[in-house]
Description:
The complex is a heterodimer of chains A (about 475) and B (about 100). Chain A has helices at about 5-25, 30-50, 60-80, 85-110, 120-145, 160-180, 185-205, 210-235, 235-260, 265-270, 275-285, 295-305, 315-320, 320-335, 355-360, 370-375, 395-400, 450-464, and strands at about 305-310, 340-345, 370, 385, 420-425, 445. Chain A is α/β, with parallel strands linked by helices and about 475 residues long. Chain A has a six-stranded parallel beta sheet with strand order 3-2-1-4-5-6. In chain A, helix 17 links the parallel strand 4 (about 385) and strand 5. In chain A, helix 4 runs antiparallel to helix 5 and helix 5 packs antiparallel against helix 8. Chain B has helices spanning about 5-20, 30-40, 45-50, 60-85, 95-100. Chain B is mainly α and about 100 residues long. The radius of gyration of chain B is 20 Å and the shape is flat. The longest helix of chain B has 29 residues, at about 60-85. At the A-B interface, helix 1, helix 2, helix 3, helix 4 and helix 8 of A face helix 1, helix 2, helix 3 and helix 4 of B.
Amino acid sequence: MTQDDLIQLAYLVAAFCFILGLKWLSSPRSARRGNQVAALGMAIAIGATVADERVVDYTWIIIAALVGGSIGAVIARRVQMTAMPQLVALLNGLGGGAAALIAVSEYHAHGALGETSLGGVAAVSVMFSAIVGSVSFAGSLVAFGKLQELLPGRPITWPAQKAVNAILAIAIVALAVWASLAISDPVLWILVALALVLGTAAVLPIGGADMPVVIAFLNACTGLAAAATGFALGNVLLIIAGVLVGASGTLLTQLMSKAMNRSLTSVLFGAFGGGAPGGGGAARGESLPVLEIAPADLAAQLVYARRVVIVPGYGLAVAQAQHPVRELVDLLGERGVEVTFAIHPVAGRMPGHMNVLLAEADVPYDKLLEMEEANPDFPQTDIVLVIGANDVVNPAARDDPSSPLFGMPILEVDRAEHVVVFKRSMASGFAGVENMLFHDPKTRMLFGDARKSLAQLVQDVQDV
Amino acid sequence: MGVITELVILVLAAWVGIEVVSKVPQMLHTPLMSGTNAIHGVVLVGAILVLGAAAGGTVEVVCGIIAVAFGAANVVGGFVVTDRMLQMFKRRPEPKREGDE
């Protein structure tokens, strides 16, 4: 067996580990093992690559890998669970950037060999990974900035946005054709620069609530860019791994768009939330009655309830309220109250965000119900606590065809006996749509920081 | 390897990917994203090949160094954070209630 055969075999083992790892992610019991198997596969792949006889100079590889790896490890160990969406966006950007850099480097290498134009496969793969990698890099960094609140979270818009983006996209494709037909480094650099601008311009107008879709989409982009570098370098493992990620990202993008009842194109080109319906709705809402409840009264009600459902949203993450919530659940559990969580697919800023936060607070995962499981039980529920969620419980999405949310599947909390909404103020949700649930006669509002409100509530439940 | 063979691999991998990932429950979607994030860090392999080839000029070396650093941060950060998340998923609360009060 030649050395190359051995490397290919190692790649096969690595690909097998990746697939097995993803398969084991289908159950929380085997999921951790799955991630470890995938990491083992990665270690095998990197080991085999380092042994490749084409790799002759190790100095820079070791230095760069040590620097990058330790930065990655430190950030991954320190990050708070509430900041997971930012971290995923950042890591995604790094992967996209790496793919784009490999493409630039490959392109230069073709030129250095004296070639004047790229062949078909090389042209498509190099240009694809340069463009998509750059878009993903810039887009992910903007998403990171928005989630980390370095940039404003609301949609940033400017005149003729779609037209400008379309012109950018056309210019990039034209440059890609040009750069393939006549190899010239400056042309490729302009192309990469324009792709970075496009990635930035595409994500800036997207509002916070659409982040789950955007992050999933950028994840798919980076995966496909990685697969394209596999074609450029003739490396099978890059193709397999990249496509696996591409498939996963695409699937999640679809799921998220469906859960918001919005097409991917409307998320990417829609700039939801900046428009007129928000302003009109909010003005109308101020004149409607809102009933408040004191924590002590709520505590008394909770203790005598049989079934309580908690609906967490991004507000819970912002207030870091997952730990007091768990305390409340434990206290009520001791008094024989059945408490579960109902989790909307797009609650939070990335798919599954709420589950991770609640898992961090030691809430057992069998208490966390998905929307389809939770909805039939609301009519038999005594009290629903809506904590920092808004649009995902807005009955207008079900009842009001004129609402911008209409058609989006919701948690039907208005079918429960009582609803209590924990909210900082009467401000509208990220979609900027008025929520009639807050004015429902069976709804009570508990205003204030969710963490403080819950701490007070825990105190009061202990005193009942 | 011919481009047709590579395309066959691409299609089969996409199929397997969709089959496997569609069985991941909503509860684990964040670890799924960060885990697949780590897997696309496999670009590190490509970056090592680019940087390790001695024939490289300045462009290859500079691009390669940044790509290796990015890829390494992506791989290590992705797997470490996914592991941290997954170890938190527990089925039942620890039975230590009497001791708490």
